[in-house]
Amino acid sequence: MATLRTREDGGSAASPLLETGAGSRRRQRRWTPLVPAGAATRRNFGMALLGVVVFLWVSSNFLTHAIFADDSYSKPYFLTYMNTSIFSLYLVPSGVRWYLRRRRGGQEEAEEDTTKPAEDKLDNKETMRLSLEFCLIWFFANYFNSYCLKFTSVASATILSSTSSMFTLIIGSLLRTERFTATKLLSVLVSLLGIVLISTTDLSPSGSSSSDAPVERTPIQVLTGDAMALLSALAYSTYITLLKVRAGNESRVDMQLFFGFVGLFNLVFLWPGLWILHATGVERFEMPPEGRVWAILAVNASITLTSDYCWAYAMLLTTPLIVTVGLSLTIPLALMGQMVILGTVAGVRYWLGAACVFVAFWFLNREEERTG
């Protein structure tokens, strides 16, 4: 009631980005997205979100490949910087709601004060601090994943990046976000086996020519690419597991505000990287050369804005390991898209690998239901 008395005495409303305490918790609770109650229902809802993420990430990969393959705009740092900075748009709704609350005065404040406070919910300063802790890990996990493709094959990058499931199981077991069981270990190993089978499948487009062969890389370049893929997998596993530890479940953190601050911090702190890479010749800063590239960048950024938000909620509703292994489903889906779009033909090894990934994900989900 202290907050209500202050407003009645003529006090002004504080910015929603700096509020703390019970008043902030009451306001944030009002805007947290509704998630079904019940462990089984929440897990199923998380699975549905994961399916959306898989589809969106595969679509994003095809769009990125469209400008990377012909070297029309191969700028992994700029692409990652733009895709992560755009998350600052999530702060706009918070600003609008704060403005509307000020216009309405104390009426809405009185209505919210009659509801039960959300226990253990992060206030705005805590959410801002959480975003600051994770913005760099998140950025470089995405950057390394994009940049490694300049030095190593897609197959090697896919295999090495997918070791994140093993890293997630190890880190999650150490931090007690995952219960280590033999079934989970076996599921991860089967998933990795499926990834290896899929990634080493010979998918040859009908009527393709030898001019499509990949550019030769030196051993040092290949080693650099493989190392970046491993760093991406490790950063991703660390990020997703630590976020689960710090956030707990979806009721404790406003993910819209969290990603908004992540985007803002990346926008403010990481722009010098563009100048450094340009000055050193690693990545020359150039604006997109044509409208087609601009359109692909805009659509790709919109996909990232939606998919990563769904991904975070899927992780909080399930577990980091389920989400990590589940995202391996992007591999068979991507290759199916490649068969449709490019007219490639898959052999028995591809379908066997896809079956391994699906079976591993199914067993892992069942094990999670059993162990709780």
From TrEMBL:
InterPro entries referenced in this protein's UniProt entry, alphabetically: EmrE-like
Ranges of biased composition (kind: Basic and acidic residues): 1-10
UniProt main location, coarse: membrane
Positions of the UniProt region annotated as Disordered: 1-25
One GO cellular component term noted in the UniProt record for this chain: fungal-type vacuole membrane
One Pfam family recorded for the sequence: PUNUT
Topology versus the membrane: Multi-pass membrane protein
Record-annotated membrane-spanning stretches: 48-68, 80-100, 130-147, 153-175, 182-200, 220-243, 255-274, 294-314, 321-342, 348-364
Domain of life per record: Eukaryota
Localisation per UniProt entry: Membrane
Keywords for this protein: Membrane, Transmembrane, Transmembrane helix
PANTHER family the UniProt entry points to: SOLUTE CARRIER FAMILY 35 MEMBER F5, SOLUTE CARRIER FAMILY 35, MEMBER F5
Name of the protein in its database record: EamA domain-containing protein
Organism expressing this protein natively: Sphaerosporella brunnea
Lineage start: Eukaryota, Fungi, Dikarya, Ascomycota, Pezizomycotina
